[in-house]
C-alpha cells in the first residue's frame, strides 16, 4: 500500500473521531459516577474566549466531513450545531463517521492538485488539495480533538494518551 | 506533486515546529510585557498529572526528529531534556528543525512498509511506516503542540488559531 490522499484523510478522520467518541463516553461515565451535571463538562472551556467542549466537537466533525466532501467534489453535508448533551454529541460524531465511511478511495485519490475554496471570515481562500489536507485540515482536526481532551483532563476526567491515540 | 511519505512528514514537522517557536516567542513577550516570571509559563500545566510546557515542547521535538530518523533508517539524534528557559526551548526547536532540513525526500519516500520499532514502557512495539506516521507520530505531534497552545491560552497569552496554523 502506498500513501494516498484517501489514506491520509478519511481513515485518519474516522480513527480520530472514534477516539473522540470514546473519551466523551469516559467523560459521561465520570460525570455520572461523581454525580456532576454533564453540562458542566459540555460547557467547559480552557479560557473565556476559547470555545466550549460542545463547539470543539462540532468543529472537529465539520472539519472531517468538509474535507472529505471537498476533496471528493461532492456537497458538504450540513449538520446543525444544536448538540447540548453527551448523547447528542455522540450522535453527531456517529453521523459524521457514517458519512465518511460512504466515501470511496477513488473519490479522493488523485486530489493532490484539486482546488478547494473555503469561505472564511475575510473572504474566499483557495488551496490545492494536498496543502489543504496537510496544513489546514489535519492541524485543525487535531487542534479541536486535543482541546476536548485538554478540557476533560483539566476537569479531572481520567483519560490518558492511549485513549487519545486509540491504542497503538 | 503527489503525496509522499516525505511530504506527509518532514515539511509538516518543520512547519508546525516553526509555528510552535512563534507562539513561544509571543508567550515570552507577554511575560516580559506583564512582568511575569517566564518560568511561570515554562512550568505551567493543565492538570497536576499532565506534563508542564517545557516537557511538551521536548516531546514535540522528540517525535519529529525520531520519526524522520526512523523512516530514513538513520540514528535518532539525542537532545538531552535540559531546557528551562524560553531561549533554551527556542534553541531546542531550532536544532530539531536543522536536523529535519538535512533529511532528503529520497531518504523517506517509499518508507510506507518500512518496519519501525519503538521502545515503549511495556516493551518493543513495531509499526509499518505509514501507520506509524499517520496514527502515531502526527497525532502525538499535534497533541503536544496543541497542549502548549492550550497552556498558554489558559494562562492569558494572546495567541489565536492563525498563530497555531502559521497562516493559511
Could you give the topology of this structure?
Two copies of one chain form a homodimer.
Chain A: H1 10-33, H2 38-42, H3 53-72, H4 86-101, H5 105-108, E1 115-120, E2 123-128, H6 129-154, H7 161-165
Antiparallel strand pairs in A: 1-2
Mean of residue pLDDT values of chain A? 97
Structural class given helices, strands, pairing of chain A?
A: mainly alpha
Indicate the proportion of strand residues of chain A.
5-15%
Sequence of strands across the biggest β-sheet of chain A? 1-2
Task: List unreliable stretches of 5+ residues of chain A.
Answer: none
Helix content of chain A: 55-70%
Radius of gyration of chain A: 16 Å
| Terminal residue distance of chain A | 19 Å
CATH class of chain A: Mainly Alpha
Alpha plus pi helix count of chain A: 7
CATH architecture of chain A: Up-down Bundle
The biggest beta sheet of chain A is recorded as: 2 strands, antiparallel
**Would you list the SSEs of chain A in sequence order as H and E?**
HHHHHEEHH
Tell me the count of domains of chain A.
1
Extended strand count of chain A: 2
The largest contact between protein chains, plus residue counts on each side, is: A-B, 40 and 40 residues
Q: Look up the CATH topology of chain A.
A: Four Helix Bundle (Hemerythrin (Met), subunit A)
Oligomer: homodimer
Pfam families (chains A, B): DUF1993
InterPro entries (chains A, B): DinB/YfiT-like, DUF1993
Protein name (chains A, B): DUF1993 domain-containing protein
Organism (chains A, B): Dongia soli
Amino acid at each position: 500500500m502506498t500513501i494516498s490522499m484517501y489514506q491520509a484523510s478519511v481513515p485518519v478522520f474516522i480513527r480520530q473521531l472514534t477516539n473522540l467518541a470514546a473519551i466523551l463516553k469516559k467523560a459521561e461515565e465520570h460525570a455520572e459516577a461523581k454525580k456532576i451535571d454533564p453540562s458542566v463538562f459540555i460547557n467547559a472551556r480552557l479560557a473565556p474566549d476559547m470555545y466550549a467542549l460542545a463547539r470543539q466537537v462540532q468543529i472537529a466533525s465539520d472539519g472531517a466531513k468538509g474535507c472529505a466532501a471537498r476533496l471528493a467534489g461532492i456537497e458538504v453535508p450540513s449538520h446543525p450545531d444544536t448538540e447540548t448533551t453527551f448523547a447528542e454529541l455522540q450522535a453527531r460524531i456517529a453521523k459524521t463517521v457514517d458519512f465518511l465511511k460512504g466515501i470511496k478511495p477513488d473519490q479522493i485519490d488523485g486530489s493532490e492538485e484539486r482546488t478547494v475554496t473555503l469561505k472564511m471570515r475575510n473572504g474566499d481562500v483557495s488551496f490545492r488539495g494536498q496543502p489543504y489536507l496537510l496544513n489546514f485540515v489535519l492541524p485543525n482536526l487535531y487542534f479541536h480533538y486535543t482541546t476536548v481532551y485538554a478540557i476533560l483532563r483539566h476537569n479531572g476526567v481520567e483519560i490518558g494518551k492511549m485513549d487519545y491515540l486509540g491504542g497503538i
